[in-house]
Amino acid sequence: MYPNYPFVDVKRIELPKGWVMMGVDLLHEFHDLKQEQILNSSFSVCGMREKFGKLDVRCYNAPLVVERLVSGYSLQAERTCQDCGYYPAALHKRNNWVRVLCTNCAIKSNYKLA
Ligand SMILES: [Zn+2]
After folding, report:
1. Are 39 and 73 found together in one domain?
2. Alpha-carbon Rg of the chain, whole angstroms?
3. CA of residue 69 to ligand 1 center, whole Å
4. Cα-to-centroid distance, 106 and ligand 1 (Å)
5. What total of structural domains would you count in the chain?
6. Is-contact 95 59, C-beta < 8 A?
């Protein structure tokens, strides 16, 4: 599912299915920056996951351009349904669990607006 780029230094990237396309897009953007030699060989991605309803991306030797790119994607993730990818979505809660969900998916899994 995910492109197998050499700078991805993690065995498996596991994102909720509604965020998979976003993760793939982000990896493509890193790839392009590599191609344009804006990122050097010391750059690598060592993690990408959902954590407490946020997109958590970890990189080694990330220059400012990567930080900006990642924060843009993080903002997008905050409004993108983790289950179906629908935009806009919002943070929802069930007991101590938080997820970014659209209204339909929230109803389906019994989550309430946080
Ligand atoms: Zn949804």
Report:
1. yes
2. 15
3. 24
4. 7
5. 2
6. no
